[in-house]
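Appendix B, example 12.
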Amino acid sequence: MHLIALLLAGAAALKPLTGRVALVTGASRGIGKGIALELGAAGATVYCAARSSRQTGFVSDDRPVAASVGELTVEQTAEDVTSQGGKGIPVPCDCSDEDAIEEVIARIRSAEGRLDVIVPSAFATPPKLADAAFRDDFWKQGMACLLYTSDAA
């Protein structure tokens, strides 16, 4: 019996977030995807929210990535979370829409009864940042530039 208890304790140590529920916005790529995968590897249930989705047919291309990266959708991230040992749940969502985020949180609370971790990693490039002239002198623009980007977010 002692051996079984030790084995179970070891399994819990390997998956310390088992039973925990997380919401990661911007989970289809970049830092958001990386965090979602790590939460899954730690055993968490991870709701992966982002605009890019097989379901909607929208895949963001505002920031190009190498083709070798693979599919950048919430469904792919959720599948990857599950393959890492967690439970991935895809949530196609415009994370810049407050009502949509509130609906996602309500859905999670209804389904899971809890929400332990929120990782706000969604990002949308402010329109002027896509303009090369604006971006080239970004470091020279001081606080006016920072104020514009914080207002756009």
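The first helix runs from residue 2 to 14. Strands lie at 21-25, 45-50, 87-92, 117-120.
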